[in-house]
Design a protein that fits this description.
Number of helices of chain C: 10
Order of helices and strands of chain C: EEEHEEHEHHHEHEHEEHHH
Strand order of the largest sheet of chain B: 7-8-9-3-10-11
Oligomer: heterotrimer
Structural class of chain C: alpha/beta
Strand content of chain B: 25-35%
Number of strands of chain C: 10
Shape of chain B: globular
CATH superfamily of the largest domain in chain C: P-loop containing nucleotide triphosphate hydrolases
Number of helices of chain B: 12
Chains: A mainly alpha (283), B alpha/beta (272), C alpha/beta (276)
Distance between the termini of chain B: 45 Å
Strand content of chain C: 15-25%
Mean pLDDT of chain B: 88
Strand order of the largest sheet of chain C: 6-7-8-3-9-10
Order of helices and strands of chain B: EEEHEEEHEHHHHHEHEHEEHHH
Chain lengths: 283, 272, 276
């Protein structure tokens, strides 16, 4: 078509979007670089390597982030931790998405049943979920898949609530009424009219869920559950380093802490940008 | 013409948007005389609402208002009035009636409280009790049958027409010489529209107030305004007395606008 | 037999406010729409006119009464049969933008009724018909690739009309199709609707609050007040000799754009605004 030639190229559009959402672009770049680096290296040191003669060194030219209590390189371990921390967080968010969205749709009717589901969610969310997660993971014998289950359990209710509130509003919309008036079947109403219009908020929620998952995951490993040493994870590194804080050796806990902070910030920024763009494309 | 209450000369409004500067109003002149209703008519996007927001100093920081002068009788140039003082001009010297009455009324205050807040905001030192008395009189004056009940109630308990009556009562409580009404009857039922417009024109005739009436409804203009200004793309394309402009429009756009109103004669022609 | 027959339709909604009185939107409304004619239903907010428009299409269920299209009682149809019947009866909404799915291209929006009701048609045939329908309502064929948000209000309403006529219905409910549009656009859309009616022999139920509009487009007018039809008459008769007091009030509230025709509003004794 003639129109497509006039339209700006995909790269140009991407560039414009990136310029408009600088914080999100920065955050996205940070995440991508972190993931690629943790997956493919090269890292200055093997993250599992220890060097007893060089323990608790403050940041210097050879050990950029210093070394920990058993002489592990904090920089290499912080980067390497992203591999397991981010993949578990992503997996947890993905499971929550895949289960939460259909459940949320199912709970989006006006009937009594749907109200009961919401009551059940209220009760479930009133439960201290971190403790539930702790119990689940511990009882399973520290299985990593249980960490994913725990994260998704925390987030499924959020997806359900979100879907319910969005869908209940959309059901009243004129274009849904128009679709009903033209004789659309229920699957068509859901897949052609409902879902495309909630996709944006689902993406926003997913980005926030990942951020939340990183925090939950770090909390778990901080408490010594889930990912356990010597596999590096931010939570367990902070735990190790926390004891040394009082003696002035701040770097052991600080750098993995900053990594958690930056990741959460990055995903929050991405969520903001997505929310901004989807809101705008309605106009 | 009689004494001029509002004299606007060369008003421009530029609005900065992400896609560049929009010249929403491009140099317009308006004069409202005492005891007169000046109608401003145009279709959406013609700049009529921006014009009155510019006069009232209600535009956001991304807008730039310019003019030779916006002279309000007994006050001075509104353009050179600092924002802080404009707050006192609005309400005391100019009453404002917006399109959506529910947007103008505070949903969590009783109607009585809103009358009292208005008095407080303008430092009139009117007691709560006096304010209630005044409000009762104002509401009765705008044709509300049971003013006490309305005063004790909240905005959401009112119908659209009743709410607009309350807004008009509020806007005229401090006896401003000028009332600016932005589509005051749009969205109201036709019978309610007739009542509200009768009310506004009654205020003008009985108390010699002046009204700047912005609307897209040619019927409202033809039946209630004395003079009319036709706006298109931020400019005035035609102005004059309602009888002149509506009966014998000179500008092509005015002619087009008037001819798009369904007329009874056409129907008679079709049926024969 | 008339094309559309509504008999003693009643519908009550629970009050939106807790403890409020239920709203009797329809109180035993009966009407007929003949093939090819325009019946206007005029009334103010709360008159039940929009409820009537939706009840006629069975977009909501009546408490009692019947709606028949071609003699077939819509309440007696299975969900599947009702869906199939919807090819014959369509609606154009008051809010042109809100009635279009913001995520779908104009082409996909207009194609949808065909995909639902004429699934035997190939995709290229559907594309051809969509293009024809868009051109029929005065839009260029390449509008199909655009999104609703990229069009003006008038264009959006043209899309709404194209969507309503593409399944070749015999009856269309027009629910205040022009009241959110500017005056000059309004005239264009009304002209378009009249043209389409001529060409396709459609019957319209034109729901409106605006006497000026109704006067121009309708063959007959039904006046609704508080859930009841108080008067039905051929358009000219209604304007010449309104029978019901409320009709006279409505007529007196019209504001002529000609300043020489002075209006004198006459309140109706049962008017809620005055007695409230």
């Amino acid at each position: 078509m003639a129109d497509t030639q006039l339209a700006p190229s995909r790269a140009a559009v991407l560039w414009r979007v990136a310029k408009e959402h600088k914080a999100a672009t920065l955050g996205g770049t940070f995440i991508v670089v972190l993931v690629l680096w943790s997956l493919f290296g090269p890292l200055p040191y093997d993250s599992a390597a220890t060097d007893g003669s060089a323990s608790r060194q403050s940041p210097n030219a050879t050990h950029w982030f210093g070394t920990d209590g058993i002489g592990g390189d904090v920089f290499s371990r912080t980067i390497d931790a992203a591999r397991i921390d981010l993949s578990l967080a992503l997996a947890g968010a993905a499971v929550a998405l895949v289960i939460g969205v259909p459940l949320g749709l199912a709970a989006s009717t006006k009937g009594r049943g749907s109200q009961r589901i919401v009551r059940a969610l209220d009760a479930f969310q009133a439960f201290p979920l971190l403790i539930l997660a702790l119990a689940l993971v511990t009882l399973s014998g520290n299985k990593l898949y249980m960490v994913v289950v725990a994260i998704s359990l925390q987030n499924i209710p959020r997806y359900m609530r979100l879907l319910r509130s969005e869908v209940l509003a959309l059901r009243e919309s004129r274009f849904m009424e128009a679709a009903t008036a033209m004789g659309a079947t229920t699957p068509r109403l859901i897949f052609r009219h409902l879902l495309p219009n909630v996709w944006g908020v689902i993406l926003v929620q997913t980005s926030l869920t990942i951020a939340n998952s990183i925090v939950v995951l770090s909390s778990l490993s901080f408490l010594g559950v889930g990912v356990s040493p010597p596999t590096p994870s931010w939570g367990s590194m902070i735990r190790e380093g926390a004891g040394n804080m009082s003696s002035g050796q701040w770097w052991i806990a600080a750098f993995p802490g900053v990594a958690v902070l930056l990741c959460v910030l990055a995903f929050n920024q991405i969520a903001d940008a997505i929310g901004d763009r989807t809101a705008r494309s309605y106009r | 013409m009689t004494e001029t209450v509002l004299d606007v000369k060369g008003l421009t409004v530029d609005i900065a948007t992400p896609d560049g500067v929009v010249h929403a109003v491009r140099g317009i002149d308006l004069q409202v005389g005492r005891g007169e209703i000046l109608g401003v008519v145009g279709e959406s996007g013609c700049g009529k609402s921006t014009t009155i927001k510019g006069i009232l100093g209600l535009l956001g920081p991304n807008s730039t208002v310019g003019a030779d002068h916006i002279e309000l009788a007994g006050h001075g140039d509104l353009l050179r009035t600092p924002a802080k003082k404009m707050r006192h001009v609005r309400g005391r010297r100019i009453g404002f009636v917006a399109q959506n009455p529910f947007g103008s009324l505070n949903p969590i205050y009783s109607i009585e409280r809103q009358f009292h807040e208005l008095q407080k905001a303008h430092g009139t030192k009117v007691s709560k009790k006096e304010s209630r008395e005044i409000a009762l009189g104002m509401l009765a004056g705008v044709g509300i049958v049971n003013p006490a009940r309305v005063l004790d109630g909240y905005a959401h308990q009112l119908s659209g027409g009743m709410a607009q009556r309350v807004v008009i009562a509020l806007a005229t409580t401090l006896s401003p010489q000028l009332l600016i009404a932005d589509e005051p009857t749009t969205g109201l039922d036709v019978t309610v529209q007739a009542q509200i417009m009768d009310l506004i024109s009654g205020l003008v005739r009985s108390e010699q107030r002046s009204v700047l009436l912005v609307t897209h409804d040619l019927g409202v203009i033809a039946q209630y305004a004395d003079r009319v200004v036709v706006m298109l793309e931020g400019k005035v394309v035609e102005h004059g007395s309602v009888t002149d402009v509506m009966v014998d429009p000179q500008h092509e756009y005015t002619q087009k606008l008037i001819s798009s109103v369904p007329k009874r004669e056409e129907l008679h022609d079709v049926i024969g | 037999m008339s094309l559309v027959e509504v008999d003693q339709a009643s519908k009550t909604f629970a009050s939106r406010q807790r403890g409020g009185d239920p709203v009797h939107a329809l109180r035993g409304v009966s009407l007929r729409v003949e093939a090819g004619e325009t019946l206007a239903v005029i009334g103010e907010s709360g008159s039940g006119k929009s409820t009537l428009g939706r009840a006629v299409l069975r977009l909501l269920d009546l408490d009692s009464g019947a709606v028949r299209l071609d003699g077939v009682d819509l309440a007696g149809l299975s969900p599947k049969e009702l869906r199939a019947k919807r090819a014959d009866m369509q609606i154009v909404f008051q809010e042109p933008y809100e009635s279009l799915n913001p995520r779908m291209s104009i082409g996909a929006i207009v194609a949808e009724p065909l995909q639902i009701h004429r699934s035997e048609l190939g995709s290229s045939e559907i594309r051809t018909r969509v293009k024809a329908a868009l051109e029929r309502v005065g839009l260029s064929g390449n509008t199909a690739s655009r999104l609703p948000g990229e069009l003006s209000g008038g264009q959006q309403q043209r899309v709404g009309v194209a969507r309503a006529i593409i399944s070749e219905p015999r009856f269309v409910v027009l629910d205040e199709p022009t009241s959110s549009l500017d005056l000059s656009i309004r005239a264009q859309i009304l002209a378009l609707l009249a043209e389409i009616q001529q060409d396709l022999g459609l019957a319209y139920l034109f729901v409106s609050h605006d006497m000026h509009t109704v006067e121009k487009v309708s063959d007959r007018i039904a006046v609704m007040y508080l859930g009841e039809i108080v008067e039905t008459a051929p358009t000219l008769d209604l304007f010449r000799s309104p029978q019901h007091a409320y009709t006279r009030t409505l007529l007196s509230a019209r504001l002529s754009a000609d300043p020489r025709e002075k209006h004198a509003y006459r309140a109706f004794e049962g008017d809620r605004e005055v007695t409230a």
